[in-house]
Amino acid sequence: MAKYNQHLLVCGGTGCRASHSDAIVESLNRALVERNLDGEVKVVMTGCFGFCEKGPIVKVLPDNTFYTQVTPADCDEIVAEHIYKGRKVNRLLYTNPENQEHVSDSKHMGFYRKQIRIALRNCGFIDPENIDEYIARDGYAALGKVLSSTPEQVISDLIKSGLRGRGGGGFPTGLKWQITSKVKADQKYVVCNADEGDPGAFMDRSILEGDPHSVIEAMAINGYCTSASKGLIYIRAEYPLAIARLKVALRQAREYGLLGENILGSDFSFDIEMRYGAGAFVCGEETALIHSMEGHRGEPTFKPPFPSESGYLGKPTNVNNVETYANIPVIILKGPEWFASIGSEKSKGTKVFALAGKINNVGLIEVPMGTTLREVIYEIGGGIKDGKQFKAVQTGGPSGGCLTMKHLDTPIDYDNLIAVGSMMGSGGMIVMDEDDCMVAIAKFYLEFTVEESCGKCSPCRIGNKRLHEILTKITKGEGTMEDLDNLRNLGQVIKDTALCGLGQTSPNPVLSTLDNFWDEYLEHVTEKKCRAGVCKSMLRYVIEPDACVGCTACARNCPVNAISGERKKAHEINQDICIKCGACVEKCKFNAIFVR
Amino acid sequence: MELIKLTIDKKSVEVEKGTTILKAARQIGIDIPTLCYFSLGDMKIENKPGGCRICVVEVEGRRNLAPACATECMPGMVVRTNTIRVLNARRTVLELILSDHPFDCLVCAKSGNCELQDLAHKFGIREITYKGEQSTYRKDTSPSIIRDVDKCVMCRRCEMMCNDVQSVGALSAVNRGFMSVVAPAFEMNLEKSVCTYCGQCVAVCPTGALTEVDHTRQIIAALADPTKTVVVQTAPAVRAALGEEFGLEPGTLVTGQMVTALREIGFDYVFDTDFAADLTIMEEGTELLDRLGKFLGGDKSVKLPILTSCCPAWVNFFEHNFPELKDVPSTARSPQQMFGAIAKTYFADKIGVTRKDLVVVSIMPCLAKKYECSRDEFKHDNNPDVDFSISTRELAALIKQANIDFKALPAEDFDNPLGESTGASVIFGTTGGVIEAAVRTAYEVHTGKKLDKVDFEELRGLEGIRHAEIDFDGLKLNIGIAHGLGHARQLLNDVRDGKSEFHAIEIMACPGGCIGGGGQPLHHGDSSILKARQMALYREDAEKPIRKSHENPFIIKLYEEFLGKPLSEKSHHLLHTHYFDKSTKITVE
């Protein structure tokens, strides 16, 4: 095997690839060949580094230099300067926003300092398409260890570790395995739920793109523990890169005898098939997922029976999410005590979040349970963009809740988030600032759940539609106090009566904003005012007579002739005609036009 | 049997493990309202998707409300079915359903018989708090069934019937969320789908989303036309159910009152499909013996088992699903069509009326019969043998329109010659009846001996698939019976695979046979109603002076005067048919 002095790791996650990281790999290789360095330095396309805000990322090993926002044009310089001459390319280094100093090693960056990467341990480090690199990082050692102990022992360790389902529900993983293992059946199944559907979330995708073997290994372990010989990965067809890498990984695992008959010389046989979802959000709900895999309409059924008892084709089926699986090999190798030492009292380990919205450091992060929202937003996330005021953070995806300033010091774990009216969900975290209207935000999320409801139960099918209609009415400035009462009652009834997790949580954005941003709702209804200036129909463009010099610039530029006035005298906007396009504000040189 | 103790509304109750809260509550007289839930318990038919959420209850220790229809009782469970939280939730959910439902009650076919309307009444809904957009969908009219899915509440009962019970697979949910409806594949029209028109979807639909095509107006027009002679025939199962529409106990036989009512409405001749059922036995029974004789004689070209062919939905089913078996069923037309063919030839001649001036109307427990009379092979010069077929429900509406006090009517007899029938023909209306009638005649024809006992108890019952061995004086005849197309499919698969050991199989598309037909008064999931109708037919059979088809004097006369003998050339022409391969692959428009 060739030995290299240095490695150039290039992020190959979907985001960085969209910013041409493919071309970066090509350019780096070309530059290395030109300088005859290709025998000494290896370019590796890895999974996601997480710091998407600053992508594409190129990392140099062994000195850990972390280059940000690299373009193919920068590659020649990186090779010429850093590799050839040993001088860092400062202009591509991360700049600490506090003191404007360059930071070369990622572990000194605010974004990474508080992170602990367990599920993401190999993302941004190994070549996901090379099984040897996974094995070099202790990959499949956990499977080997498990095969020489009993399923009961492994399950008991898993229970001890305190790992809970990372898909959102937070059900104790070991317990789930135990239930499946105890049901007697001629055939059982292990399913990986990779139907990640929250808008803006990409935790599972990144793991599958960056470290597919960790999921495959864990599924095999699960198969051994529950006596299942067949695994199924249900993945949305919109994840082409993750699918491609999974396929490579499955092929390699079979070639190495890590999947198939008599794995590692044991009696245990296990293989995995892929199933593609068509992108319905509800198919992330396990019973709907199973129906979809069976070729039926993807809609949930009442539980019990739980899939552990009667799942795919009526057989006992253990369904876990991608991130849950990714944790398992490490837990087995390092022991349950180690895992349980991380996190909070009832939520152990770490959680991956997709940090998005009005925040400086957008990206994928993994933090210990118990980290506060403030730490995530201000330390890791680097605070709010453009120095604006923080307003809310939405956790738990489209059916989570909007939390506010007073919740910032809440340590993140399953129970705390539920207690404050939101939830963990699968790990979406969207930050909002003063420019966001909370009524419009609630409406946005409802739009999503209305679109994604399967239509099976009446509260979700019709109730969410009505919630959305009421919110639309309010954002149009036509809301009444009665509407606010109706929103609350309807939201509570939907939560109380809907069939599945989607419906039961879909009113959360409405209920949590009603609780935390009641003033804004009131303003919309009683004063017909949207303080964030988002709800267009409530805006009024007004000319301040004292400031207006009558230059006529606004009147000449108004596309609908809504502005009138004599030359050199204060002008006026006819509100009945104004379409609120804002052209006048842009043209006014005297700051005489205001939005109210 | 494990027993579980729980408390519902502070009353303690003990139930078998696996019992739902809904059933446990009903056991102690607490009637939790439901909408999507549907059960024909005795036939193992149950629909509990937990979709409507009307039946929600509070369970102590549970975060949200539980659907009583789908939640199993647990030991020590404390259930409350009428707290403010529950009542508010139910009312809100009902208002939501109503907010997406047309307010067409005044002109809806289901008005007065609508489960949604009943709920709105029970809950005292006077206005809808959550008004908003209503979903709209095109109306789909087929020869038998109208789909007006704007009225669909997504209870999925039709889907359960069509797929789980009938194994037809014409209906399933399509689209998502607010736009979801139950529809044929690719949202085709029902007519282009694999629908058999059995009408079981209509029979269970709680609202007016699925109804029959109403032909009563055409009948009134024909009755009003002085140039037309209008003849009516009534199917056996109608007389055992019609009374329910007028508040009579299920199982009340109203044969005579029905005849009187039809006369009062103005039909020129009131005849009986039972007469044609006797004729069917003559033809089908003879065909059975003919095929059996040849088969046992070693003729390889003859296929057994012979399958009955009186049920039009069943005919549609095998034409769609088992076209390779289309030479297996009897070629005998259904009684409805035999009647039409005889009425428009033999009878028309007798009274000196031309074919086109004779209008034949049938009263059927069935919706597929509407389609059957529109089939081309049952027309002559584009004039159908049976002009209009209406359901038991439509007849009831017609009687009510004519302000006839049905319960006070005296009983009258059918007209002759097409009104005389035997006990054998009456039991055509229930599962097992056709084959029992056939056995009565075939036995005597085959053995030349007189039957001591005409009741073949072994062929009766409500089990989905039954079989019996009948001793034909040394010849053991294996008989299979299936009702419900799902059960029929099981037997058919065996026939196709050459595994069937039956000589004859009776198949009825609807659970229970015609007594549970898609055109019958709605039973709302009460299977005791079906049992009562079945018993009524056996009662009428037992009371008939003649109980074997071949002894019907008017049948004997018909053969003497007109047809010659069973399976004669004239019979072939008028009383037999052929089948088509309808297994055309689905094409998306």
Provide a short characterization of the protein structure.
The complex is a heterodimer of chains A (596) and B (589). Chain A is built from 24 helices and 19 strands.
Architecture (CATH level 2) name of the largest domain in chain B: 3-Layer(aba) Sandwich
The name of the CATH topology of the largest domain in chain B is Rossmann fold
**Total count of strands of chain A:** 19
Count of strand segments of chain B: 22
Largest beta-sheet characterization of chain A: 5 strands, mixed
What Rg of chain B is obtained from the alpha carbons, in whole angstroms?
Answer: 25 Å
Biggest β-sheet: strands ordered side by side in the sheet of chain A: 12-11-15-13-14
* Structural category of chain B: alpha/beta
Tally of individual domains of chain A? 5
**Helix percent band of chain B:** 25-40%
What amount of the residues of chain B lies in strands?
15-25%
Tally of helical segments of chain B: 18
Fraction of residues in helix of chain A: 25-40%
Q: SSE layout and pairings?
A:
The complex is a heterodimer of chains A (596) and B (589).
Chain A: E1 6-11, H1 14-18, H2 21-34, E2 41-46, E3 58-61, E4 65-67, H3 75-85, E5 94-95, E6 102-103, H4 110-113, H5 131-136, H6 141-147, H7 151-161, H8 173-182, E7 189-194, H9 203-210, H10 212-226, E8 230-236, H11 240-255, E9 271-277, H12 286-293, E10 317-321, H13 322-334, H14 336-340, E11 350-357, E12 363-368, H15 373-380, E13 390-395, E14 401-404, H16 414-419, E15 428-433, H17 438-452, H18 458-475, H19 481-497, H20 501-505, H21 508-516, H22 518-527, E16 541-543, H23 553-557, E17 563-564, E18 572-573, H24 583-587, E19 593-595
Chain B: E1 3-8, E2 11-16, H1 21-27, E3 38-40, E4 45-47, E5 56-59, E6 66-67, E7 78-80, H2 84-99, H3 115-122, E8 140-141, E9 145-147, H4 157-165, E10 172-174, E11 181-183, H5 200-204, E12 210-212, H6 216-224, E13 229-234, H7 255-265, E14 269-272, H8 273-296, E15 306-307, H9 312-321, H10 335-351, E16 358-364, H11 368-374, E17 379-380, E18 383-384, E19 388-391, H12 392-401, H13 423-426, H14 433-447, E20 465-472, E21 475-483, H15 485-496, E22 504-508, H16 527-543, H17 553-563, H18 569-575
Parallel strand pairs in B: 1-7, 13-14, 13-16, 15-22, 16-19, 21-22
Antiparallel strand pairs in B: 1-2, 3-4, 5-6, 5-7, 8-9, 9-12, 10-11, 17-18, 20-21
